[in-house]
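@channel sequence for tomorrow's demo:
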Amino acid sequence: MVLLPSRKVLDDREKCMLIVVFVYISSVGIKRMKSQEDGQKVDRAQTPLSSIAQAFEEISDLIKKGDGNEPLVDLPLKPFCEACSLVSVLFGCLGIAFKFAEMEYTAKLKDLLEASKSFDTLSSVVDYDLKNKTVKSPGSHTRNLRRVRQGLDLIKELFQNFLSPENLSLKTAATTAYQQTCAPYHTWAVRTAASAGMCTLPTREQLLLNLNETDKSADKEMRRYIKASIDVIKIIDNLYISRGIKLDW
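structure tokens (generated this afternoon):
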């Protein structure tokens, strides 16, 4: 058992120490887990990757079809949130190394899903915060949308690295993706914990088993997501840029 200090607020160094201890304990547990049997049959109809790829392709198609004349420049909020909710499964398959990305992603997404009861589109969320001068305020819908967008980008970059000709290890692919997308916006404590947690990542083969995929099927589904997510990420970025909101936060 890890005992927390009696005061309510921990500084970054204390948080990092607790996180690293948690990472170590988790890594020991992962190594003791019984590995799945070789030759396990893959049920292609129910894989997380195929569900995610399909959901984002549907949104991408919606963007491209637009109103019949031009591509969409906005997205309905609830369908967007429902598609994004499927991505949470991927963070879980990556283990403790991406626990903070998963926690941040799911918390922000939950807020947006709740907001979909009052707002119809992504632009209405951004415009509301612009009007109230709360765009970058902690907990604002626009800030949360920005973090969810970073989560989508993190998975896209991870997939691109995973499928690169260099045949990178999952650790290298994930570390590079994290450094490119999320690290610039995380605190020292979270960056340190994420770095320590990278050693607990599964192997490429274990990840495919966790996702219920083969090399061939994973390649196909990851490429589907990469292509579709580019359109979704672009439309979110354009919502900010068109309103004079910078993307460096």
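heads up for whoever presents: DSSP finds eleven helices and no strands in the chain.
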